[in-house]
Amino acid sequence: MLRFLARRLLGAAVILLLISAITYFLFFFLPSDPALLSCGKNCDPQNVALIRKNLGLDLPIWTQYWNFMSGIFTGRHLPAGNCPAPCFGYSFADQQPVWPTIADRYPTTLTLAVGGAATFLTVGVGLGLISAWQQGKFFDRFASAISLLGNSVQIYFIGPIAILVLSTNLHLLNRGHDVDWANAPLSSVTGMILPSLVMSVIFWSNYSRQTRSLMVEQMSEEHIRAARAKGLSERYVFMRYALRGAMASIVTIFGVDLSAVLGGAIITEVTFGLHGLGSLSVQAVLRSDLPLEMAVMLIGATIIVCSNIVIDTLYAFIDPRMRLA
Amino acid sequence: MTSPTQAATEPSDPVPAGDPSATVAGTPVAELVGRSPGQLAWVRFKRDRVGIACALTVIGFILVALAAPLISKLYGKDPYQLYGQDRGLLNSYGIPLKPNGGIDSDFWFGIEPNLGRDVFTLLIYGIRTSLFIALAVTLVSVAVGVLIGLVQGYMHGKVDYFVGRFSDLMLSFPQQLFFIAFTPVIIALFVSPRDEEPTYLRVVALILVQFLLGWMSVGRLVRAQILSLREREFIEAARLSGASNWRIIRKELLPNIWSTILVQFTLLLPVNVTAEAGLSYLGVGVLPPTPDWGLLFQSGANYFESDITFMFFPGIAMVIFVVAFNLLGDSVRDAIDPKTVR
After folding, report:
1. pLDDT confidence band for B59 (50 / 70 / 90)
2. Which of A14, A19, A271, B54 is disulfide-compatible with B324, CB 3.0–4.6 A?
């Protein structure tokens, strides 16, 4: 198990290194003048000169990259100002290092992603399980209709409708606000219910469909027949034997979907006017703030890669064969 | 995967209901006519009513997109005129004076809050823009995906390994963030940030970023299929008869993966339409005043609490479009490969 984890961690580090290198290269080497892209909408030549110096654009690209990467761990002293330990660069639009902004924003995105994922896993897998149990009956068709519809709506369309109906008219749920876990944990939860619910809708169909077909497939396996022959109740066989077999594949599908989950969280944030990494990255593009964009990209990739390790570990718990692989 | 010869004489294949040769009174089926897998699939597809309805809907959308200039000419309006402001149809908050978003005989789908443009023409031109971009993205990513998958599956060994790791790497990029962040960078490659960027350049950049992260899934699927196909006897036979690699790929392998390509295409297109609309919605895709499906939601989002009508038509249109495409994808898959159970 330890070797398994060590290998995954090493792999993740390599992937992150490559992603950061490619992104850095594309951002700060390929464009003819990265300084101009980093300096906000209204900038004068003096500023551009300062930024060029600050980014170290006169240095060779590998030195630049090394400075950037080592700065994350050791901090940097930039001409524009001091940038303490997790230094992901210096934003010229904000006139400050980018890390405080990101530290301020990422809890909202993370909460939304986790809340949304928990919701769609519950609803999607639940729908799939009931459909498989009630195969061919009314609920089966009902569930597949629901999931088809869920697959076809967009967050930016149902988001406003949900706010209008559930919040403005029926006063059932809070219309969504940023989280503040340290000071107001309860309102952090209530503020995330509606956004998580709306975000989860687009994922329902995939999980209910996959769960249903996986369960149907599992129920025709040999070990299920053996369990039935032993005299175990149908429900026990279904929930303990078949579900466990199907779980491994569901977890794999979830791992592939992680980047889509983050994407859904970004659109949901903008729809609900939340202040997370997604709205931050859009704002960074609109204000031409390349250093901030670079940092958000790297943080996003780190979140996905780390979640993947968690999922791999989970997978190893579900499927013992994976621990040896 | 059935090879052409197998499929043509497949005995279990049901005789289509409408086939006259089968229903000639009293006489058994006279002769077995060989049919290509394509013909068989078409026969199966024609019997699928839902599939036909969805295909017609999809064709309808495509026609509307193609004929947008013609339709708007007949309708007598264009998507750039600020009718609401010019004719005084908006109140001081920018909301249409008439109920239901200003729908009347002149403006069928109402007018846009604030600017007062005509929603009907905005929508048909918006569909045109989004559909065009998504079509380009899908075509390029499927073509490149197939090519890479073919090479990977056929070449085996080192090529397979390195291309596979590369596609893994591309898969671990956070997609949405990548699209958002790289569009301006790609535009900056062609035009200085100081200058005004032409609209077509933004469209090209959008196609490019979405393609860069769009080819991997097709590539993987094709690779997996090729890996199993290349061990089959007919490939061995072709190789023994001295066929070149290129000929084997073109004449033996490609015809056997057409169905996969077609199904992937129908599945990817709606995903790409909504992805493009999503980017425009976020404000980093197509920029106003160019009409775009996603931009309609963006301007609607500011006014939905006073008037949801404006968002209603683009939203419903998009739901119908995606439902039709998804069901069409299922029907196409059923028609091509009837063994798959849904």
Report:
1. very high
2. B54
**Chain A residues within an 8 Å CB radius of B304:** 160, 163-164
Calculate helix-pair angle for B157-171, B119-155, nearest 10 degrees.
150
By three-state DSSP, how is residue A12 classified? helix
Q: Which amino acid is at B53?
A: A
The model carries a pTM of: 0.85
Q: Which residue type sits at A34?
A: P
Residues in chain B: 342
pLDDT at A121: 93
Classify residue B114 as left (phi > 0), alpha (psi -120 to 50) or beta.
Answer: left
Instruction: Tell me the mean pLDDT in the region A144-149.
Output: 84
The answer to whether the CB atoms of B278 and A267 lie below 8 A apart is yes
Q: Where are the domains of chain A?
A: 31-87, 99-324
Q: What is the DSSP letter of B287?
A: P
B50 — contact with chain A (CB < 8 Å)? no
Q: Which amino acid is at A203?
A: F
Nearest 5°: the CA angle B72, B73, B78 is 55
The answer to whether B162 and B148 are in contact (CB under 8 A) is no
Instruction: For chain B, list the domains and their CATH numbers.
Output: 44-336 (1.10.3720.10)
Q: Is A201 helix (H, G, I), strand (E, B) or coil?
A: helix
d(CA B269, CA B264): 8
At B217, give phi and psi (nearest 5°).
Answer: -65, -45
Which residue in A157, A213, A281 is closest to B315 by CB distance?
A157
For residue A51, CA distances in Å to A44, A200, A217, B260 come to 11, 41, 60, 50
Which residue of B lies nearest to A210 if distances are taken between CA atoms?
Answer: B342
Topology (CATH) of A99-324: MetI-like fold (1.10.3720)
